[in-house]
Sequence to fold (248 residues):
Amino acid sequence: MTQLEQLNERLNRYQKILTFGKWTSCIAHEIRNSLLPIRSAIQILKNRMESLLRDPKVGELMGVLETESERLNRFLNELSERKSLDDGDTQGTRLFEALEETIFLVQNRLKEKRIRLEVSESSLIKVPLSKDQLKQIFLNLFFNSVDAFEQVKRIKGKLIRIEIRTLFSNRLVEIRFQDNGMGIPKKLLDSIFDPFFTTKEKGTGLGLYNIQKDLLRVGGDISVNSVEGKGTTFILKLPVVEEKEGCL
Fold:
């Protein structure tokens, strides 16, 4: 593609996001109605389970329930606010810190599905997204990969690999999220980032769309390489937040 074609393609994606933003407030309202009793139930359980919460494992799991329900509520608030594509977290978030917290949430599921995880060396890089946004991005990618293994007959050899590297003198960070699952049919690749597009029976079609929206908002981007039957690689690019010496 020429540079002009790339700019036009990017502009079209911006336009889709702006148009779809008009729908999100209604969606957020409906989900929040279901989330409220869940959050209330968690608080009641915490108050009535003081003796059980002394068990470190029980306390840890209850903390996950509370933290993740709060994160979902903040995500819904963000949807309903209809933020512009220029909004981001100017202070930045440690990329690898958010990834580690996400891995903690999915590690049992990966073990259950016999999926091996490989992650490149840790990095102290900061990116202009909140920790909630980063965790949601990684969760969506993990869930997609797990689903991609559902139709793979082999039991062993399932692998998710995450590679993080900097580009252009540390001004840009690239995250490669790769699995050797079933892959995506070539005819679907142009549609996977569209809102509500899904091939899953119970999918919403919003996961990849939201990832694209969050990345474009702060000057990043996402692309995909996939070969049906061999696997898929999502390539995420984000600007790096510079840390000035002497500043907090």
